[in-house]
Design a protein that fits this description.
about 30% helix, 5-stranded mixed beta sheet, disordered C terminus, about 170 residues, single chain
C-alpha cells in the first residue's frame, strides 16, 4: 500500500540516495544542466544535507513508501513573501522510475498540500523542466499551473557539450 509521511532520521540515507538519482536523471535533460548548478543539492548528496531540515517548522522532508519501503521523497520549504504572506516551494519531489504511476507521488503531494495549508501558505510553487510533460501533467492534476516562464540564453560556444565547472568565488 502506498503511503507518505514526514521523514525521520532513519530515512535520510535513503533520501540522499534518491536525491542523487534525481540529479543524475535530470541533469542531461533540457534545462537540466542549469538546474543542477543553480537549484539541485550539492553532489554527492549526503544525509547531512537533509538533517537540519527535520523538525524545522519552515521545512518538510517527506518520504513516499510502498509496504514501508521508501521509494520516493519530497522536500518543501516556506518562503516569506514581502506582504507577510507565505508560499510553499516544493524544491524536490521524486519517485523511483519503476515505481511511478502507483500513487506514491500523489500521496506525497497530498501530504505537501496538507502541510502547506496548515502552515497558512497562500499557494505552492514548483519547477517542471522544459519537455518533462509527465511532471507538468502530474503537477497540473494537483492544480499547479504555470505562473511564470524562465527563459535562458547560453553564452557558451555551441560545441561545448557540458557546462564548465564554476570556480569558487573568494
Amino acid at each position: 500500500m502506498e503511503h507518505a509521511r514526514p521523514a525521520t532520521p532513519h530515512d535520510l540515507h535513503r533520501v540522499a540516495q534518491l536525491a542523487q538519482q534525481v540529479i543524475e536523471e535530470l541533469t542531461p535533460t533540457r534545462g537540466g544542466q542549469i538546474w543542477a548548478r543553480q537549484t539541485a543539492r550539492t553532489v554527492p548528496v549526503t544525509p547531512a544535507s537533509f538533517e537540519a531540515l527535520l523538525g524545522d517548522p519552515l521545512h518538510l522532508v517527506a518520504v513516499g513508501t510502498v509496504d514501508d519501503t521508501v521509494i520516493g521523497y519530497a522536500a518543501v520549504r516556506i518562503d516569506a513573501l514581502r506582504d507577510g504572506g507565505r508560499l510553499a516551494v516544493l524544491d524536490e519531489l521524486y519517485v523511483e522510475p519503476d515505481a511511478r504511476g502507483v500513487g506514491v507521488g500523489e500521496a506525497m503531494m497530498d501530504l505537501v498540500v496538507e502541510w502547506a495549508t496548515g502552515a497558512g501558505c497562500i499557494g505552492i510553487d514548483s519547477i517542471a523542466l522544459p519537455g518533462n510533460r509527465a511532471t507538468k501533467n502530474f503537477f497540473e492534476s494537483f492544480g499547479l499551473v504555470a505562473r511564470a516562464i524562465i527563459v535562458h540564453r547560453s553564452l557558451l560556444p555551441a560545441e561545448t557539450p557540458e557546462l564548465p565547472a564554476m570556480a569558487p568565488q573568494p
